[in-house]
Amino acid sequence: MKVLITNFILSSPTGTEIYVRDLALELLRQGHSPAVYTPNPGPISEELRAAGVPVTSDLRSLEFNPDVIHGHHKMQTLTALDKFPGVPAIHICHDHTYYVDGLLLHPRIRRYFAVSNLCAERMVREGLADNKVRLLPNFVDTNKFQPRPSLPDRPRRALLFSNYAKAETQLPAVTEACRQMGLSLDVIGVGVGNSVSNPEEVIGQYDLVFAKAKAALEAMAVGTAVVLCDFGGVGPMVTAAEFDRLRPMNFGFQALREPLVAENIMRQIARYDHLDAALVRDRIRAEARLDVAVKTLTDIYDQVIKEHQTVFTRYFRKLAAMFPPYLARRATIKRAGH
What we know:
Layout: E1 2-6, H1 15-29, E2 33-37, H2 43-50, E3 55-56, E4 68-71, H3 74-83, E5 89-93, E6 109-114, H4 117-125, E7 133-135, E8 157-161, H5 171-181, E9 184-188, E10 208-211, H6 213-222, E11 225-230, E12 233-237, H7 243-246, H8 262-269, H9 274-287, H10 290-322, H11 324-335
Parallel strand pairs: 1-2, 1-4, 2-3, 4-5, 5-6, 6-7, 8-9, 8-10, 10-11
Antiparallel strand pairs: 11-12
Helix pairs in contact: 1-2, 1-10, 5-8, 6-9
């Protein structure tokens, strides 16, 4: 299939940008033809182009008409729908507050998805019928994020893995908690000027990671213990017992229930269990694999394409029933070569 993916920006390694990159590359690996539309290209755009995925900020330059639009972000999805009027789409909400993720109601969007409960609630709040939105959990590239060696009995090295980590957010509380618990701490993220393009080569050096959402998924896939933590607050240590409750939250904001103070973080660090972290790793690697998630998406694409074709077929049959003399005359003219 020819799949056009839309996104507001493709610059730094965050949220939907990583999602788009991984999705496009896996579609390519599975034999499809992805392309990406973004009005704000950047380094990730260049990475995709180097791998053979077209990226454009002007849809007039796209060299094919897509079979389906995989829409992220309201205005970019609408731009693609306007440019390709006969093409059906799906739309996925990735953020429960960011304005670019607002709901787009459109007759050719045949499926609406959310990566978390909060995103689904936003879509309903903004006007979508609650039976029209489905949860489509996030994924992780398990080929890239390989398991690290077994964790030690007690954690020694910790990583704060967040683009929002800085002095005004979670950094002071995490730093103090690690100091009191005797853990060394490193920080990766845009907020501290230490963004990395290859986290898969770094995360495995740590026993414990503070993160949320996709960063937390990546850390779990490697096999580190993970405490959910970000600028929104402190959540629990992800355990096998709580996995099913936390995954529909996308291991994200909905789980961050406690204030950002060292005591709350220390209480979660104390729950560290190297054997349980291995169970969580195995669940993520079995249930959140990129290749399986993309196969699910291509099945969805196929469904919406067929549904759209059926709708158009019914429409033209209805026209034929309403105007048989006119259509018969047109057919006669066409056979005569006029």
